[in-house]
Amino acid sequence: MPIAENLLKIKESLPEQVTLVAVSKTKPVSDLMQAYNAGQRIFGENKIQEMVDKWEQMPKNIAWHMIGHVQTNKVKYMAPFVSLIHGVDSLKLLVEINKQALKNNRIIDCLLQIYIAEEESKFGLDEQELQQLLSSPTFTQMKNIKIVGLMGMATFTNDQNQIKKEFTHLKSMFDNIQKLETTNCQLSTISMGMSGDYSLAIECGSTMVRIGSSIFGGR
Length: 219
Ligand SMILES: *Cc1c(COP(=O)(O)O)cnc(C)c1O
Fold this sequence. Notes:
Pyridoxal phosphate homeostasis protein, TIM Barrel, Ala_racemase_N, pyridoxal phosphate, PyrdxlP_homeostasis, pyridoxal phosphate binding
């Protein structure tokens, strides 16, 4: 099916409060423009250089989300324009984002990535590391970042109960810290759910889904 049709079908199926990030990694700008022309304004990429290239070539009223693992030394390339960084998983990375945001006179929104899967390969913080980060003086003093929520990726499995358990875990961690309102921490977003599991993620409380192959086709 054409990209525009895929996109509109998915959009129709999403509840009003759920934000759609169109994951366009590895796809050419011409594909992204089809989604753009169908009204999509939020795109997710997992490599900084690729996101910068696409940002340069595409209309400027697009919100670019970095959904991949971020290397500290590359933050500077996206700091002028990135709209949300999903994969923040260390204080060290947050320190660098804060520094580059300051240089650009911006406040950059971030999600903390939580480790919920049963796979060694996935990145993220556990519950204790999350608490440590949020209570550290280094974090509380940062003025150019804002934590707006949590992000997680479920195990790659067909076991719906397993996936549901992992999403529910993320939702409960979010609920536990939601009352913690400071200037640089205002939690509203739970980024969970991809092409294969977004309906389940929404049932479990997701407010932001990251969908790639169901819109743009396989990679
Ligand atoms: C690639 C990717 C997605 C989208 O995956 P699809 O299965 O193609 O929808 C979502 N989140 C992250 C972090 C990704 O890397």
